[in-house]
Amino acid sequence: MGKYWNEEIECMPREQMKKLQDERLAAQVKHVWDNVPYYRKMMEEKGVTPDDIKSTDDLHKLPFLTKADLREAYPYGLLAKPLDECVRIHSTSGTTGKRVVAFYTQHDIDLWDDCCARAITAAGGTKSDVCHIAYGFGLFTGGAGLNGGSHKVGCLTLPMSSGNTERQIQFMQDLGSTILCCTPSYAAYIGETLKEMGLTPDDIKLKAGIFGAEPWTEEMRREIEKSLGIKAYDIYGLTETSGPGVAFECEAQHGMHINEDNFIAEIIDPDTGEVLPEGSKGELVFTSITKEAFPLLRYRTRDICILSREKCSCGRTLVKMTKPMGRSDDMLIIKGVNVFPSQIESVLLNISKATPNYQIIVDRVGTTDTFEILVEISDDMFSDTVKTIEELAKKISNDIHSILGIRAKIKLVEPKSIPRSEGKAVRVIDKRKLV
Ligand code: ADP
Ligand code: ZN
Fold first, then answer.
1. Which residues of the chain have pLDDT under 50?
2. What is the pTM for the complete model shown?
3. What distance in angstroms lies between residue 317's CA and the mean position of ligand 1's atoms?
4. DSSP 232-248
5. Which site among 160, 187, 418, 426 is 20 to 30 Å from 212 CA-CA?
C-alpha cells in the first residue's frame, strides 16, 4: 500500500474535483428538498429551488443551517432517509450546550470509515500497525470513527476507549501499539503517566498519534511528541458532519486536508454571513455532499480558521484548513477583552516550570469580571522556595498581560490537582450569569 489511502481522490486535479463537487451538490440539494421539509421551508423562504443550484458557484444562494436549527429540529427534523434505513446514531459531546444527534445509513458509515482510513494512512499507518484507540466509545464519535478507519486500513485494532491510564500503557507494552488515537489532552496525560511509571518512550513502540476533537497548540504537539516519542498528527471533525476525519493532517504537519469529495468548505464572516476570499480568517461552513441520512447544507461550525490551496509537499490536492483557533463561542469576553483559552495554553507551554494543565475561572463581582487561572507547577518546582514560586506566578501573570492586555490572578497549584480529562479537557469555568 502506498502513502495515500485513495490516491485518485486525494491527488485529484482541481477542475476534476470541482466537477465532482458540482454534480454531487446538485443531487444533494434535490435529495434534501425532497426529503427534509425543515430545510425546504428555509429554501422557500429565501426563494431558492433545486433548479437554482447547478454548481458550487451557486452554493452561496442556499440558507445557512446552525446548531440552533439542529436543536429545534431535534431529534428527527433533519432526517433525510426513513429511520429503517438508518443503522446508527451518534451525539455531540455537548461542550457548548444541549446535545444534538446525527443519523447514519450503512453507506454513511462506509464513507466516514473511509475518511478515517485516509487519516490513518497519512499518519503512516498500514495493515501491519497496531492501532490503539483511546477516544471514548459510545455516543461520542471519536472512538467509533477511528475504529472504523483502522479496520478499513487493516490495522490490528485495540478499541480501548479512555480511562484507566496505567492499563492503557500496560497494553501498549504487551501488545506493541504503534499508533495512538485520542484527544490531545489525554495523549499528554498518557505521556505524564508513562513518566510516573518510571518508563520512557523507548519502552513502548508507538510511532504516531492521531489527535483531535479539541483545540491544541503547536507547543502542545511538541510536548506530546517528546513525551511519547512519536509524530503527532491532527484530525478534525464534528458529529454533525459524521465525526473525526472531515479533515486530516499529512506528513507536512502543516494544516489539515479536507476530504472535499464529501465536504465542501467555505469561510464566512461570522457577523455578516458573507463568503470570504481564500486566505481569510473566518467561520468554517460545511456542506456534506455524499451523506444520505443527515446531509447538512451550509452548516455553520462556529470554528474559526483559514483555508489554503497552496501546493502541499505531500502531493495531495485537497484544500487545507488551519487548526481551528477556537470556536466563535469558545471565546470568552473578560473585562471587554476577547480571550481564547489557547492563548493561555501557549503562554504556559513557553514557561518550563509551569505545566499546560490549567483552568480558567471567570466570575463577576458587582459589575466587574474576575479572571483567575489555576496553573499546576511541575514536580521539581514543587519543593522550591516560596520566593521562586512567587516569581513564577509573576512571570505567568506578566506574559499573559503582554498578550491579552489584562491581568489574571495566577494561582499555582500542586502537580495533578486539576482534574484530568479522559475526553475533552474542561479548561474554562465561567460562573458569570450573563443571560
Ligand atoms: P461538541 O460541539 O459538543 O464538542 P463534537 O464532539 O461533535 O461536539 O465536537 C466537534 C467540535 O470539536 C468541532 O466543532 C471543533 O470545535 C472541535 N474540534 C474537533 N476536532 C478539532 C481539532 N483537531 N482541533 C480543534 N478543535 C477541534
Ligand atoms: Zn499534505
1. 435
2. 0.87
3. 24
4. EEEEEEEGGGTEEEEEE
5. 418
